[in-house]
Amino acid sequence: MKVFEMKDVKKAFGDLRVLKGISMTVKKGEITSIIGPSGGGKSTLLRCATTLETIDSGAIMIGDQTLVDTKDGKTTYCSKKGLQEIRSKFGLVFQNFNLFPHFSVRRNITESLVHVRKMSRDEADAVCDRLLEKMQLSDKADAYPCNLSGGQQQRVSIARALATNPDILFFDEPTSALDPELTAGVLRVIRDLAQEHMTMVIVTHEMAFARDVSDHVIFMDDGKIVEEGKPSQVIDDPQSVRTKAFLNGF
Amino acid sequence: MEKYISTIKLLSGGFVITLEIFAYTLVFSVILGLLVSKGRMSRNPVIRSLVRIYISVMRGTPLMLQLLLVYYLPYYMFGVKTGNIKIGPYSYDFIATIIAFTVNYAAYFAEIFRSGIQSMPKGQYEAAQILGFSKSQTFFRIILPQVFKRVLPAMTNEIITLVKDTSLSRILSIKEMFFFSSSAAARMSSIMPFIIAGVFYYVFNGIIEITMNRVEKKLDYYQ
Ligand SMILES: Nc1ncnc2c1ncn2[C@@H]1O[C@H](COP(=O)(O)OP(=O)(O)OP(=O)(O)O)[C@@H](O)[C@H]1O
Ligand SMILES: [Mg+2]
Q: Is the CB of A248 under 6 A from ligand 1?
């Protein structure tokens, strides 16, 4: 079952063509890593998928809903209501967390449950407690983001993204803003999610991690998918010159 | 001694009006200022330029002149006799004062709010959007509380200025504290009423500073 699909997605910022026709599908329970050099368009791809940027042409489907489609050269987005529904189906974990600094950890996680999903406080708190336990942050429910380490903040932001029970989770370099000694905790949490067959798309520079955890690896450069396949193919036995050159840097 | 006490009593009576001008202006101008700051950042270029002109006129002309304009405008522009206008216990003199102060202070607050809102990182909006918050939920739950903390020091400055500016309403014969201190000074041929008025303003502003410092401390729990 397809959870996410992109078809020939193109996106430019002014004259700069950043996505030059990207097609990909993600099946339920599958973990896809996107790797590639800086400026290749990885973040832009995720931002288009998560409604933070609009595309110029192509199609994006999340679950059984169409976010945007191009027919007869005309690109149209779904209605506002459709957008709201689609946003309830995915989560996004940012490189720099983007936690709400004025809310406690608990409120960061529960605020949308209560005010968007209209859950009761008690229900939302139960969800929060369960997720914090999973993130090994049970003792931090009442702390504020500024009093947490980067790794802890990122785990809170993962819990926040999971709270709405999304069908698919997108990560944009979840460990790039962290000190090296803090990345392990975050990667372990993502590995745990992988074990539970959470559907995920992960942009990462952690090659060893991508090799271990992914079912599918996409190498992206200059707005195009250059090579894709199993990690054993793309990471261990790359065919393209550009993929080889990129992986040699690690 | 008796003279002092009777002057203090007299000024205390006027101080109630001073407080009313202060409180109404603060509430209305903060609300209007928020709306104006939104207009200043509007996507519509016509709204944006109109608001920009409004702000620059408010900041570029004396408040005293604005008071007189608001006071005389209904009569000289539309022939409206303002003597009969009354809202609750308030005559047009007082209403004109509140309007002029509000419109003036809203311009200053709007600029403060705008810089606060624009200083918010884009990621806060994006995180809220992804979580499904509506535009207004995002503004009131996520953005505004953080903006409030950021603009608090600048707001304190404006609020302290407002306390002192209430004395300008004397030009419309509003019977606030400064009105009484000038008339008492003239009657008694003494500067003592002015000094007492000064003490009133100084103490009131001291209380405001202490209060705002407390609020700032209270918000120290994050960032
Ligand atoms: N909002 C924007 N406006 C203009 N140009 C942009 C914008 N966002 C991204 N770009 C440009 O698009 C290109 C792709 O950027 P993107 O952030 O998607 O790359 P990336 O693969 O995520 O790189 P990195 O590994 O450094 O995060 C870059 O040249 C970038 O400067
Ligand atoms: Mg990026």
A: no
